Please model this.
Amino acid sequence: MYFTRQTLSATERPRPQGIQAAKRWTGLLLDLLLHPTHWQKLGFAVQWAKWLEWEGGLDLKNPVRSPGILYLQNPLHPFSLNSLLNHIDFALIDIETLIGCVDTGDWTCFLKESQDSAAESKEREQAIQSLEHLCLLSFYLRQGLASLSVLSSAPNKVVDPQELEDDRRVQDLVARIMKDDNKETIASATKTTIWRQAFTEQALRLTSQQDPRNALSPSKLSVILNEVLEMIRLSKLRQDGWTDPSVSDKLSDSQFQQLGRLLSTSFFTIIEFADVSLLMPVENITFLSKFAAQLPASWYSDDFLKTTIKMAKRYIATEQQEKVRVPIQVQGLAAISTLWSFWMRKTGSGDVNILGQELIDIMAEILAIPSLFTGPESQGLLGACFSGLATGLDKWSGLMEPKIVQGMVAGLEHGRVSAQDRDMDGIQASLATVLRSNALNQSKESITKLVKAFLNSFYGSSSVSTLPMLPMGVTNADELFQIQRLFQFVVTHKAELVPVKDEEDDKKKRKKRRKPKKAVDLKEMAWFEAMVHGVQETSASGAVPGLLAVAGMLRAIQHGEDDPPKVDAVSLALIQDFLVTKLKGFMEALKAEGGGSLLPSQTQACLVFATCQTVPTLPACKLDPVECSLLANLLVDYVLQPNDGIVPINEILRVITYETAHERNRLLLTGEANQVLARTVKGPLFTEMGRVARTVATLIEGMEDWRQIEGFLQKMNSFAVNIHVDWARCGLSRADSFLERKDNEPGLDAETAKTMAMLFQVFKTVLFAYTMIFGSVVEKSSSAAVPSGLISRLDYMMLDSYAYLYFITYKLGPGGFQVYEDLITSILTRMVTSEELTAPQRQQIQNQQGNEDNISRHMLLNKTLKAMMPRAELGFYDPVMESRTLFFMNLLERVMITIEEGLLERQFLPMVYPYLLKNDQRDLFESAHSVVMSVFLTNKKIAKEVAPFYSNLLLQHFPDQINIDQLRAAFTTMIRSLSETEDALAWLCVEKLLERIQHYDELMEAEVEAMREESYVALKKEQEEREKEKALVQVATAVHQDLSPQESPSHLPSLGTLTPPVPSNSTAASSSARAVAAASSLILERQKERGQLLLALFDQLSSVNLVFVETLGQRIRELLAKEPSLVGRKALLKCILDVIGGSAVDYTKRDWAVKWYLGLVNEYAHELSPSPLSRQTSSHSSAPSLA
Model:
């Protein structure tokens, strides 16, 4: 990264061309400085430099020296170079030898041989010092220029390997110098002298030299060399992160002091080089401006301000007089204006009054020059000038008001294209400050000019189309929303619609002190009239900002607090009519161009934002001039845009799907999905989604054409379908479904859960908006006349939309929220109770079917349900699809009474059957059984065919998939329903229950018998083993008695410690014991299940008719007799008492039931008694007769 080498010829002589020649020859000198092996050519360069401008140059004794700078005696001074050429042998110089001299501190090896006279010895010492300075300058430049991107070489340039090696050696030297514990160097030069200061503590700068033609200015070559050194210093600051303004919030005390020293260096550099350099003061004042808010007021001294004023005037003169645009000067003007605006905030109105007025004049002059705002380097200039002028209005309002207003109007007339995005906060905040200021209360003309320039010139569209368009340069509609907030802020504060709160006073005391005030009369206020007049004068090009301005003014009036009171009714009506006029003009312009299909999405966003803040609170009569259908259509179209709307659902789910596939079903907090969701949730229109829905609902109430309302519902239904389908395709939909998660199945990680929470917030907001709009449709259709047959289509689209969105509703609870539940109930009630078929429709259906008896009054309802029915083959294994199935089954249960028999038998029940045993989704499982029970409750004809199948299903899958509570509820509902129509079928189902209980009895008897046999076998084996042990002991005893006295008994075991051998079948005995224990546990479980089935049987006492109740009582008596446990028998009697004592047993069976129960109690109570008399009495008892 170095300058290109230049081949110097002794015959070439430069021609004087001022600063350009100085830059050219400085470049040649830099190339020589960077390569010590070319230092012998410095003689020619010095001759040219002397001829050009160094002749007789002397060091300037400038009293201004910047702190933090190491000022080096310029080794390129002609006298220094002459000394070098006379005493130094340049043939001996190379990089390696110079580095060795730096390490040792001995430079005498480069001296030529000469006589040792005293005068010559002094000259030789000066030559050595100049050589060291020259080497320091060369190495400093070589190390620093490598970091400057502006000096980087071309990408295709071939780098000399020798230069790379020289660079490495220099970098190693610099690294050794910068070490705290520098033991590698031999001499102390690199530790304590200028070498360590230059590379670790201070930046390097050459002492200035006079220009021989102007004794008061330094030479141009000296200035440009210092500019190169200054760029190296600033480059180091950027690399270390000091140029970032946010760094000041993270610094320690020592680092903050270091930042202060760096800013101080730049401060004095500006003063030192303001008149002689362009680059150095601009770069340093730009650095200062980034920390303008942290600079103390004492830094804004008269000298500094006057220096910046001279710089600004010189830059402006270059722009105006010479007609030359220098980008770096524009950058300097932006930094200077920023410093001025902060100084004006910190100073009082009486401080430096004349100086402040001069600054205002200059900033107003800057705003009047359009060419200054045409490039990226002007970033911050417009905003800083506006901020300074707005601050100056409060400081010097009496004198400078016309100048300030003139300057701001001139700046606004440049248009939005002249402002950078960074300027917008300053421009809008400054304009709000000026309009709010009391200094302009009576200046109607000034206010009108500012408002008109802001809306018509600055934000006015340059398009030739009559459509309301946005101005060029606006990249985000959020910026235009600030127009509405600006005018709302101004009106609110100037009219004092929000009281200023005194935090020191108690709230109760403030209420006691406050007296009722009259309504604010805005029409008598000059500033209000001027603002209205300014908005009225906006042309068609300012239609969008004008609408936002009126909306802001109206919102401020509408939301004024009651104490102090709101504005007067006349002013309120005036602004309401003004808004309606703006909306009407907006709609007419759209109709003239063929509707809103050509309207850009950002313009639609502005329309949505303006209307959602104001239209819901407008009186209904005010909306009569506005074409509500077209306005509502624009709002709905923008809200439902899948990619650019308020909820860009396609974009969100596309990003989530891609990221989950890339990150293995994870969403990172730093991922794109999280960023898209955060941007959506924090969007200004998303937070206003409730008001947007209210606005659409308000407009629907004012519409008369029901076909257009149907069109809105069709769009909403399509959007709901898209959300449903896209979410079903997403991999995370299964993890977020209503499936019951298994214990070993991992859940979502923390980062994914946070992102999913934001996604659900988006979904939930969509559901709430749908509910608000649907509520208005239902309310309107209930009170207004609706074309025949249309109401069923409206109901279908609303219910179908809710079905597709039910995966969202389920997250709020199976019943949703109260408003949602009330709306669903209202729709279903209307569908069930309304007479939907007109006389012509009935006649048409009769002609088609040929039988009037088959015509159902709920035919349209059945068609709606048929159209909504989900396809089981698509959703049986998809949790998102099954959410729609769950919603549909809930509907079937609630409207079962109106469903046609054929439709129920052929389509609806076959869809329900698979879920009767799918208990991994509890809600689907329970909903399916509820549908079947509703078939029995409504006495459908198909109930007779379903009963045998359903009773078998309940009994076969008890208790694995159906628990006792579900069994009792389902069986009781089924038997009670069948008893009303088919007693025999009801008893058949009860007999199935009895057979199931009998099956349990048979199983338990078989298991008990098997357990007895196993116990008998085990006992018999144990006895045999004991007999064998006894025989073994007897044999051992006999052997012991037969031994002779000579034989030692030590070889035989003692009878007292005799251990019987372990039988070979001990393992079998243990296994037999375990089998007996398992069989006992199984029998206990069977008894428990049998008892639960008995409870279900007892429930049927209240369900069967009188024809079979006596038979059922006798069967229950027989089952009780088989109960082996007396405690269990008592418990069962208590359960029977609960059934017959409840309200389910009607009066026709209650007398028999009481007598029958008392007979049971007497019978089993006597059995529990030990008295023979009681047993005799119980033998004569019998069941009561129904006769």
User: Anything to note?
Assistant: The first strand starts at residue 69 and ends at 72. The two ends are 119 Å apart (CA to CA). DSSP finds 48 helices and four strands in the chain.
